[in-house]
């Protein structure tokens, strides 16, 4: 078992985008004036017909295979730096075992290679040749994509995280063909597509998205006299546990709770609490809803949780400092994406993992985190072939490979809901269940998205860290945001 955990940890190292995807992008999909999305039937066929000359498909895909899983390269003493370049694929480790049979444990060093190899084989069978491009991630990617849309010069498939819903709202992306959309709705976990739904149509797909769960250090919880195997089910229960752990820690360790920094890393975590409490950041038109009653209740709860942290930790602008505190045994509870499981195992932390507790009037909900959404631009030259690529991403072969890693859960229901998967990966099955229902992505505001996010983040920080009236602070933030967006 321990060998399996260490092997899986190496997989995380290969997924080098890491937390950059969760925190460096600022949701700024530039406001580009385009016509509203129209329905199209040019991708309705279930297959792209083979042609003598074939199709060359340009894909933004470098590094996006496993975005957002976290960076744990510091966990291993020796880093495998010797790489050789395959003629057609990304660099790969020279000493890795590339053998893989369905249902077997994946050699963690070669997951990105195997993933892309399956996609390549499927495309070759349809006489489609892939050409991949790397435009970076976070803000550099957003800037390049914005410029590409303005110039009407885009790859056939683009990829991104928090900016992608905004591109859909601006009419820059092609809606999925009707047959494809129906299949996805019936067979794929909502977290893989729901954040990319706009006006009843789907505009993007993520093959292995993350959502948040509650994690806790069983050792610290037990030291506080609590049952380390029992997860708190409500906000009141969670707060009570945090208080007891903080009291037991006597300044050596604290209860913790959720990262609340004024950045995307914070919004992606405590945004889940807003969703659960039937609040949120914006309405369907991208207008801010900062001062709703539900949000005020959630921010007041965050203010309470702040007292169960070392001074300044919860609202620290550097999210890495917060997660380091969990890894070092300085806080007992936190909300984070599924990679927290493998990182904790590698560090030897005996951890628990459960759904995020509910508020008294709340409902289950979540925010996607570390989700690399693939979409087809309106100006793409090979739309039929592009949709074939996305079909391959949710194919049984690719989703089985994801399942066999044990690091993320597959989104294809037939695999994730099988008795075999539930038995082999009970925690990731739990993650799969969390990907259903009310799952949202971070919104793009109707105008000046970066400025509006900063107003919100600053207001929440002030509400949590000072004795100011929360309603007055959030009312002021709402007024400032409305002045920008209207």
UniProtKB/TrEMBL annotation:
<dbReference type="GO" id="GO:0042956">
    <property type="term" value="P:maltodextrin transmembrane transport"/>
</dbReference>
<dbReference type="Pfam" id="PF01547">
    <property type="entry name" value="SBP_bac_1"/>
</dbReference>
<dbReference type="GO" id="GO:0015768">
    <property type="term" value="P:maltose transport"/>
</dbReference>
<comment type="similarity">
    <text>Belongs to the bacterial solute-binding protein 1 family.</text>
</comment>
<dbReference type="GO" id="GO:1901982">
    <property type="term" value="F:maltose binding"/>
</dbReference>
<dbReference type="GO" id="GO:0055052">
    <property type="term" value="C:ATP-binding cassette (ABC) transporter complex, substrate-binding subunit-containing"/>
</dbReference>
<protein>
    <submittedName>
        <fullName>Extracellular solute-binding protein</fullName>
    </submittedName>
</protein>
<feature type="signal peptide">
    <location>
        <begin position="1"/>
        <end position="29"/>
    </location>
</feature>
<keyword id="KW-0732">Signal</keyword>
<dbReference type="InterPro" id="IPR006059">
    <property type="entry name" value="SBP"/>
</dbReference>
<keyword id="KW-0813">Transport</keyword>
């Amino acid at each position: 078992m321990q060998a399996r955990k260490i092997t899986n940890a190496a997989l995380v190292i290969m997924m080098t985008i890491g937390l950059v995807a969760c925190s460096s992008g600022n949701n700024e999909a530039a406001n580009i004036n385009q016509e509203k999305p129209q329905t199209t039937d040019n991708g309705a066929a279930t297959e792209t017909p083979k042609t003598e000359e074939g199709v060359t498909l340009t894909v933004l895909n470098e590094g996006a295979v496993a975005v957002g899983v976290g960076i744990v390269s510091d966990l291993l003493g020796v880093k495998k730096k010797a790489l050789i370049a395959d003629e057609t694929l990304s660099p790969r480790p020279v000493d890795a075992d590339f053998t893989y049979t369905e249902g077997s444990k994946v050699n963690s060093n070669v997951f990105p290679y195997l993933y892309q190899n399956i996609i390549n084989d499927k495309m070759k069978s349809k006489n489609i040749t892939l050409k991949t491009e790397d435009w970076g991630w976070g803000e550099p990617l957003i800037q390049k994509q914005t410029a590409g849309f303005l110039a009407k010069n885009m790859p056939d498939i683009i990829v991104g995280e928090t900016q992608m819903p905004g591109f859909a709202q601006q009419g820059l992306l092609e809606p999925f063909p009707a047959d494809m959309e129906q299949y996805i709705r019936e067979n794929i976990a909502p977290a893989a597509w729901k954040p990319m739904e706009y006006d009843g149509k789907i505009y993007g797909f993520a093959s292995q998205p993350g959502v948040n769960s509650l994690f806790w250090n069983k050792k610290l919880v037990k030291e506080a006299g609590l049952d380390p195997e029992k997860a708190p089910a409500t906000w009141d229960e969670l707060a009570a546990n945090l208080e007891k752990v903080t009291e037991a820690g006597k300044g050596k360790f604290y209860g913790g709770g959720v990262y609340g920094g004024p950045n995307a890393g914070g919004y992606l975590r405590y945004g889940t609490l807003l969703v659960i409490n039937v609040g949120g950041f914006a309405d369907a038109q991208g207008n801010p809803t900062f001062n709703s009653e539900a949000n005020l209740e959630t921010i007041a709860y965050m203010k309470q949780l702040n007292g169960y942290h070392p001074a300044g930790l919860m609202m620290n602008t550097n999210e890495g400092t917060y997660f380091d505190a969990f890894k070092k045994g300085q806080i007992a509870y936190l909300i984070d994406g599924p990679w927290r499981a493998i990182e904790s195992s590698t560090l030897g932390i005996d951890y628990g993992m459960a759904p995020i507790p509910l508020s008294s009037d709340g409902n289950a909900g979540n925010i996607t985190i570390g989700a690399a959404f693939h979409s087809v631009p309106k100006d793409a030259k090979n739309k039929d072939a592009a949709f074939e690529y996305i079909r391959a991403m949710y194919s049984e072969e690719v989703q089985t490979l994801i399942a066999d890693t044990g690091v993320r859960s597959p989104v294809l229901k037939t695999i994730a809901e099988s008795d075999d998967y539930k038995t082999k990966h009970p925690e990731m099955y739990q993650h799969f269940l969390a990907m259903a229902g009310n799952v949202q992505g971070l919104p793009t505001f109707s105008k000046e998205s970066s400025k509006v996010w900063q107003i919100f983040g600053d207001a929440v920080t002030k509400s949590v860290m000072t004795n100011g009236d929360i309603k007055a602070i959030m009312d002021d933030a709402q007024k400032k945001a409305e002045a920008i967006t209207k």
